[in-house]
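REVIEWER CHECKLIST
Item 1: Sequence provided? yes
Item 2: Single chain? yes
Item 3: Sequence as submitted:
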Amino acid sequence: MNLNQRISGYSKKLTKTERLLIEELQAHHPQGLLESATGLAKKVGTSASTVVRLLAKLGYESYAQAQMEARLEVTALLASPATRADAVINDDASIRSCLDNALLHDQHNLAVTFASLDVAAFEAAVRLLTQRKVRVHVLGQRHGASMASHLALHLNMCLPDVRLMTSTSPLLLEDQLLWIDEHDLLLAPTFRRHSLAIARAAKYFRQKGAKVVVITDGPTAPAAASADHLLLVRTSSASPFDSYTAALSVCNALITAVAQRRKKEMGAALERGDVLWEQHWNDAADPARRAPSGR
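Item 4: Structure as written out by the authors:
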């Protein structure tokens, strides 16, 4: 429920000052709420406490909650960080408000993402990831690159054939697609601004009879058209840049679900990993590789 809906549903009598505040808010909605309570109050000749009391009457828990709602509406309307910067950054914002706003936005993103997540698509993705002989290819670029690395690192501990497709590989992306067939699965996190390379890779996977799971911020993402299963996440933020907290949480849920289905195999893999670490990479455990003490 946004500000205008709250105002329409409020039936109790308002004071003259409160009516002036509502007129000001509606005339400049949603950007008007991005001002501080003090700045908004000055425009109608009242106090910041009157602004806060009015919003409490309309059902807001705090002024920060009302501002978060306004930012969500603003960021939904504005397409890029450049166009969002002026709308979401206040010159008089305190460091504490930056912390509070980031927390409020991420809490909202998490709540909305998990409330609206397509559970059937999530379950289908887990089944695909844990089917026998599946080759899992994880591809993410720009903002999705770190998410792809996180997925590949942890899924590799659960599954025998996980491959991180990267632009830094000696093989070009098209060379990494040479052997794709119906046994393959593409897992692709992709966010604003979406990589056309991911969309083209997803389309190619589908053409070869492989499966595609896309984690993204909207159903119109280019790769979504080729997805067998789509997992949508919210990325609203208190800054000009999107927040990927909810996306990371969905990725963690996916990893957890795969780990549960592959508990025995994962346990054995982790034991092998410990042995490898101690034998080959743990310098502290090998006296021959220890640095001289200087004595």
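Item 5: Key structural point noted by reviewer: The longest strand covers residues 184-190.
Item 6: Recommendation: ____
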